[in-house]
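Q: A reviewer asked whether we had any structural model of the full assembly, not just the individual parts. We don't, so I'm hoping you can provide one. Inputs are below.
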Amino acid sequence: MVEPSTGGLVAGALPAAVLVRLLTVAATTALARRPRPCRWVALGGSMAASVLTLTMAAEVIVSGREVEGVLFHHAASGIVFDYAVTPLSAWFLMVLGVVALPTALYSAAYFAHAVAASRTAVVGVAFNVLLGSVEAVFVATGVIVFLGAWEVMTLATAALVATEYQERANRLAAYLYLVMSHVGTGCLVAAFMVLASRAGATSFTAMLAGDVVSGPLRDGLFALFLVGFGVKAGVIPLHVWLPEAHPAAPSSISALMSAVLITAGIYGLYRVCAFGLGVPDERWALALLFVGMLSAILGVLYALTQTDLKRLLACSTIENSGIVVLGLGAGTMALAHGHRAVAAVAVAASLTHVLNHAIFKGLLFLAAGSVVMATGTRQIEEFGGLLKRMPWTALFFFIGALAISGLPLLNGFPSEWLTFQALLLGFTATPGLVRLNFPVAGAMLALTSALAAACFVRAFGIGFLALPRSRPASDAHESPRLMLVPQAWLATLCVALGLFPGVTLRALETVIASLPGLEAAAPTAAGALGMAPGISSFDFVYPAIFGVAVLAALVVALSLTARRGAVVRQVPTWACGGVLTPRTEYTATAFSKPLLMIFKAIYRPQRQVDALAGASPYFPQGVRYRAEIEPTFERYIYGPLLRGVVRTAGAMRVLQAGSLHAYLAYVLVLAVVLLIWLGGTP
Amino acid sequence: MSVEALLALVAALLQAGGMLAAAPLLRTGIKKMKARLQNRQGPPLLQGYYDLAKLLGKESVQSETASWVYAAGPRAYFATVVAATTLVPVLVAAAPLEATGGILLLVGTLALGRFALATAALDTGSPFGGMGSSRDMTIAALAEPALMLGLFASALSVGTMNLGVLVRDLVQQGPSWHPSDLLAFAGLFIIVIAETGRIPVDNPATHLELTMIHEAMALEYAGPDLALVEWASAVKELLYLTLLVNLFLPVGIATGFAPGALLVALGAWAGKVFLLAVAVTLVESTNAKLRLFRVPELVSVSLGLAFLALAIRFL
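A: Here is a predicted structure for the entire assembly that you could use as a starting point for your response.
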């Protein structure tokens, strides 16, 4: 067991970060009338606090030693806020910091355009409160602080989603987010209360010792926690809020939400579901595998048909959350059957994907923010030709697109590779028929990553290449440097972690070793360059070395074509004898049409074509075309559920008729019943 | 640099060069056999080389609408396919760069090339490029799970995902003739047809917008750029056929670098690839191209075969 450390320089980092955040919030509020300094103070303070938490997280990850401390101690009332940065917390803190830092820098320029001057202070405060509460969620030692921070996190997010509250759609998105989050929080409160009453304490060390509950109660609690954390993680079928809320917020907030906020749910799944309730059950693992598989496939299928760039990215967050849960599912299955080495690989896969997804999704949302700022629209169908007008943003989006498609040499590949390893090793480590789930999950993961590639060829190719499709797109210009630097930083990380995946895995070693049941797992890294999940050389990969081979072949290709130093002749694109206009280009809708038709059992597309008749029915004056896919979950699950709730509420209105006498009668009846019921007990 | 690394480097260069040299012959050979089946004379066997030489000698032409992505597409496609050849055992039961990765790296690298080409196809603004790009990514997405499942079936039966180790173990075990091998082979054969753009999935000889898939992506390319695309596609086809023969019938493959064994291996490899090419030709000559929306049925057959292969092997 590792020794908790309470001394040293880093021990002060977290209280310092909290202090910085509080001062920032105060200063931001004070400067509310002066947008420019207000913005810089809010975001500069946030960056300073992020640097502090990053330092602390790095220290804990490197040393593997937990850091504990007390934030606030009020002797008279006995209120104590203490914190503990375990290696697992540190990993999530690190993921948060890596994205929060560039996002804050980007926001310093972006908010000037995207947020009204009068709202700057509100957004600045909410930004800091959000990050501070997520940090508190990761380091909370007891359920009270945890749930408090969880709630503040939800409220701050809702405030940010409703930044542009003038638009009805944004208000609805914030409302939906609040409702779904509180259903989730309700499940968490119920489950934690049962756990706390069984453990007789509210601290995590007592509640999550693993031996507090057993039998069917344990399964029930697992289900409650799965729903509670699943809402925040955005897994299907609890995802309905995500494609509404994530795009509604300003783009840099969307980046935070998609990259980091969903990891709060993942953290909960790790801390409580997989490693807090004792040795996992096989059925739990199957539930996680199934939820992960469903989220991955449906998430990417939904992303594929979106024409709103930010909605597309939000749907792909569901997919990636699914991949993370898939890895965790393989890990819990291995734990259930006592295969520690396999479980370690699966946990490494899942935690690596948490980091990698945060990086490339943060990058993609920031690049999307630049595009939205330059064009004033989120519709891919109205972009086009942006590469020539915004060369840097296009390059960074392209790198993000390659990474999110799980292609080698970028950071999406190592985590998907590891997830495949987890699934294949899970197959070899599981007895009986159950193991056939793993190759199916593997095939689904392959389908997911291939569909993601199609989705991002579409998003990049239609959005950034060829001719501009609208006036705003042809007038677009590159973002200020302050918005490009954060993107460059994240893009560099995409490439670096793709070429040197061993770095991530080495950092994860202490994290994995700190998890119950995985104390002495074999290392999964092979130096900084490679990954070799140490199980009898099942598989290994060294992307950077192979990258040299690709580079050499590229040199051959270049030397084959670069003859005589000849200039490349520029000619117009052949357009079947006509003139090439943006209207003859392939559209995003057309691009995904074949897949829409092939998966029509899932999409259930509906379309309506109305020809506006002129003098002759054969020569219509115009055509109105409308196509949509059926919102399956909203219509068949949430619709009936909502109607049921409304009907029940209506029926209960009889009780609450507004008559004071009736209410007094209820109190009397309740008092009598309670007296009779409790009368027998001493 | 150690002796092994140096040896691997030389082997990688030789193997990539050899595959590059042999690939045009395979394409022309299939064309020739197809022609003979239709009572035509067909092109001379070296036509593929003449075509490449001619295209490489032409000037480069680029659309005014296009950007650097247009030029990067064919080069990246070529580079990934050629690099991928070093991950597959061809004559010797070892892949030159097997120390850098296995099946997943191979599939990922080919996907990287496809991503590059499909993106570049959208760059000229021509609707044909978009059509080809969309259809190619669609078919690739459908083929990917079946390809992976088929490869998993043979990889899990041996217990490694590294192609070099896999083929060595298969050679040691000798042919098992387990029914699961036949099922996995049949499944993968379908996928190879889909991935290499052969009838009944795609027609390599068509330029009709209703039917073309791969050709539509390459439609805007000319001269040296087109040469790279065509050459890389040929190498990719040879790569898939080699993978298929060495995974399921590793007979005659050399276990060392003795010149005699290498000659035997060369003969055996050429013979086996020729037999598979005959099979591809026969399929192509006796079938009509499927509608795009019938392709999923074909691919699900392959997916089903691969799953059955796994199921009967491990139950």
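A: Points you may want to mention in the reply: Chain A touches chain B through 84 residues (CB under 8 Å). The longest helix of chain A spans residues 340-375.
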